[in-house]
Amino acid sequence: MPDERIYLDYAATTPVDGRVRAAMGPYHSEKFGNPSSLHSFGQETRAALEKAREQVAALIGALPGEIVFTSGGTEADNFALEGIAFANENKGNHIITSAVEHHAVLHCCEFLKKRGCEITVLPVDGSGLVSPEAVAGALTPRTVLVSIMHANNEIGTIEPVAEIAEAIKSRVAGRESRVYFHTDAVQTAGHIPVNVNDLGVDLLAISAHKLYGPKGVGCLYVRKGTRLAPLLHGGAQENNRRASTENVPGIVGFGAAAELARSEMAEESKKLLPLRDKLMNGLLTRIPDVRLNGHPARRLPNNVNVSVKYIEGESMLLNLDLLGIAASSGSACTSGSLDPSHVLMAIGLPHEIAHGSLRFTLGQQTTEAEIDYVLEKLPPVIEKLRAMSPLYPGGKK
Ligand SMILES: *Cc1c(COP(=O)(O)O)cnc(C)c1O
Questions:
Q1: Residue 337: which CATH number?
Q2: The pTM is what?
Q3: What is the CATH number of the domain that holds 201?
Q4: What is the rounded CA–CA span in Å between residue 7 and residue 328?
Q5: What pairing do the DSSP bridges indicate for beta strands 180-184 and 203-207?
Q6: Minimal CA–CA distance to 247: which of 210, 221, 209, 190?
Q7: Over the stretch 152-207, which tens digit does the pLDDT of each residue have?
Q8: CA 208 to ligand 1: nearest atom
Q9: Ligand 1 pocket test: which of 186, 192, 209, 361 has the largest number of ligand atoms within 8 Å of its C-beta?
Q10: Is 359 in the pocket of ligand 1 (CB under 6 A)?
Q11: Quick check: CB of 150 below 6 Å from ligand 1?
């Protein structure tokens, strides 16, 4: 460990792997050419860009030409939704999504609704799962896009994406215009196997900083033959799909991170699963009135999300932070507002339970000693907070 603090918030972001940093280095200094320039400086960075495109494509079973680099996961999600909506205005205006999507999808849908799109937001069950039958049932002749995430960033539930693709396919078979299928794979790419053909998707978003790459870079996979209206208008970069001089160091880092993830992800899951289960089971057995959020089996190998009754997630977080433990609560994304997470509300938690939620996400540096430390330190913190809580039977009234 570089210091004494314990980082258990890998779903928010990951540190850049040292090997990724090393790969990026020269592109911050001597290899600075513009990839669009014809001279040798440009040729050098152009080659690096195309190598990164191959590395990222290989991670998800895509063709290099199907990868469009973006400024991150948010831009990739926005590009998928707006790109399809605006390119298909003459065919339809209906988009289907779910209540547990990242705000990069949900807020984009709200924007598109103001621009004349019709949006169906499907509910999820108590473990966060979207039903493939519900997706098929929501399709109309005006539907142009379905957007369902691969795994949820808060509760870790892995959605039945391949089954949803099948359900869409059989429902629209024989139909003239296409229904495109997008998935936000920001929490899965580089962590569990992701293959665009096995999943049956046309569009898929990835962010580098969630897989030990740099911040501010990501990509959208765009299946060959899919027309998208561009978000940015300018030069001819990214095959005319995204104007602006490419973030070469970032893209090189993304490529290196993708290649490392591809060769190391199986080993990483094997290490993380028992640690995750130790933390999960430890919390559930050592603390009374705790529930696990998300699906017990269909979940990311690094995610633990629990609701602790009678107290606030924020007060637990701050107390943990004083002990050097970094986690996340169910309302951090809407800081400043009192609304609990839309994901926890969507799985049916009452307000007061959703407010008492904590997310731990494990990663590369996580050790068993760290998990033991959390299991030792958290129960007394909860006991102390509950003793002060007016909600707690037996606590202060
Ligand atoms: C982090 C995250 C995003 C946003 O990615 P950025 O690169 O930070 O814009 C989108 N979707 C999910 C599921 C995420 O976890």
A1: 3.90.1150.10
A2: 0.96
A3: 3.40.640.10
A4: 10
A5: parallel
A6: 209
A7: 999 999 999 999 999 999 999 888 889 999 999 999 999 999 999 999 999 999 99
A8: 7
A9: 186
A10: no
A11: no
